[in-house]
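Q: Here's a chain of 439 amino acids. Please give me its 3D structure as tokens.
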Amino acid sequence: MDVLELLSRLVAFETVNDPTRGIRPSRECPEFIRDTLASWGVEGELIERDGYYAVYGEIGKGKPKLLFMAHFDVVPVNREEWETDPFKLTVKGDRAYGRGSADDKGNVASIMLALKELSREKLDGKVLFAFTGDEEIGGRMAMHLAEKLAQEEKLPEYMVNADGIGMRPIIRRRKGFGVTVRVPSEKAKVKGALRKETFRIRTPVLETRHAAYFLPGVDTHPVIAASHFLRSREAFALSLEGKFLKGNVVPGEVILTYVVPGDGEEVEVDLGLTRLLRAVIPFVRAPIKAEKYSDYGVSITPNMYSIEDGMHTLKIDVRAMSRSKDEIERAMREVAEFNLQGAEVEVATNERAGYLFTHPEEKIVRTTLEVLEELGEKAGPVEGPGAADSRFFTPHGVKAIDFGPRGGNIHGPNEYVEVESLRRMPALYTELARRLVRG
């Protein structure tokens, strides 16, 4: 079984994680991973926590030196936007399309094949591996494994978190925070013309829906655009509808129904929604100060909106090179005080998670670059825009990188992995493990 065939099998499992709709991956995919590895002589165990699964195992003997980690869960899809079946790997030229092909099942397949090869060799130390099923909703399984290994004094020296993209070692990644803003609905009668305006996402340089990849000044966010539209004229909102999928997925479009005061019929508008939408611009410009430098600075994107029991709720994704939520909370409350008085503002994050910040001269970085060059790939270390599960291991002193093949449209329609790049991954991971374990 080659890496493309294995990826095709993995993509066929609809391992969508969508807690808002009560959807989570079943045990079928992790069982397939465990059983496939077992058929190659690589034993792993199925771990379950709160209805989510992971496959964990060890090969070799002695001190744990390296951990390979990847995740098999994926974000939801809007099938209307896909040109192919998202759960059937479709190869067109050098691209293999399918949900999870780049994020992150291509890495799962590559590591599985690397483990198959490494299990036949005599290793001077242990290689640990974990395939998790909840990375897209916070990665508590990775957190559990990090703490468990720390308690058992089995933490590895190095970690390859195979949840990257671009065939370059990612040495920095920010931490994610979730901000929830709630305001009550407030109805009022306004005489005027009833209108609708549709705002669509625009990413002219890098096609993606991943919130961490959104670049202000280059990309257009539909909710931010709707806010600017409403702030630039005398108008009142009635409703906001859209393709809202997940907190870290930028919606493809939103439809704003509004009233322009003047001649016409009397219409019931929502002053609470109007104020909330007008406050979006100040929220995404909140003066958040980070702890460390990041190429991407601080990212703030409003990706989920809903109304329930008379309360408008906006969920905002924040990415910053910070560990504590105190600074994010301070800045967001300050914005609300001046623009949305009376609003409820909550900031959520996993306080036990950190961020990825590995020095470029660390051995794991230098060794990765050496192996890449020998495979004909010239690359340097970079910062990745999104967060990843390595953030649960770095606070314990584990030296980590994130890594993955070339691909695109992560979290968006028509996600793909480049086939030529993917085919190199098993050999790359195998050789990298040999050198790090050999010491």
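Q: Can you summarize the key feature?
A: The longest helix spans residues 419-438.
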